[in-house]
Every structure is written in C-alpha cells, then in structure tokens.
Amino acid sequence: MEFSFTDREVRAIKIWADSFIHGGHWGDGDAIVPEEDIIIKKLNSIKDNVISLNEIETKIILAWSDSTLGIHTMEEESVLKKLKPLLEQ
User: In sequence order, which residues have a C-beta less than 8 Å from that of residue 80 and are 6 or more positions away?
Assistant: First the structure.
C-alpha cells in the first residue's frame, strides 16, 4: 500500500525507529532485523513523499511509535492516522 508522508512525518518515523532500535530491544541495541533495515532504506530513499509499505512494515512502524510512551506530536499523530486504518481492514 502506498502512503504519502510529509518530510516532517518521515522525520518522526525515523526518530521512532532510532529510539526503538537503539533503545535496547535486542540487548545492547546493536542489532537490527532485516525488516527494520528495509523500512529505513525506504524512508531514506523516499521520492515525492510517497512510500510503499506492506502490512508487516506498517506493524513495525506502529511498534516503533510505542517508544514515545503514548505522547505524540502533531506529525506523529498524522502518521498514526494514516497507518492504523490499514490494520483495521
């Protein structure tokens, strides 16, 4: 599924990823699962603010969002509003 994200929304997702990946979920935080790496590469090469994500990638980004302890900025809320409906289908 394709999603359109602003530059600020992409930045918010990258912050979630950094917090989650380097937050010790794999012990010392030095490990990254292949799916996470794929998402980060997609975020780094996004063109025209459009990115294609499958269901698993969407779930991973939503897991990353939990690293904020439930307090979200406007950009983060916007990302969540775009991603959550995919999982409700």
Answer: 62, 65, 72
| pLDDT in the model for residue 7 | 96
Round the average pLDDT of the chain to a whole number and report it. 87
Counting DSSP H helices and E strands in the chain, the numbers are 4, 2
Residue 10: how many CB atoms within 10 A of its CB? Answer: 18
CA distances to 42, 71, 74 from 46, in Å: 6, 26, 21
Q: How far apart are CA 12 and CA 44, in angstroms?
A: 13
35-46 pLDDT, tens digit per residue, is 999 999 999 999
In eight-state DSSP terms, residue 47 is: B
Q: Please name the amino acid found at residue 3.
A: F
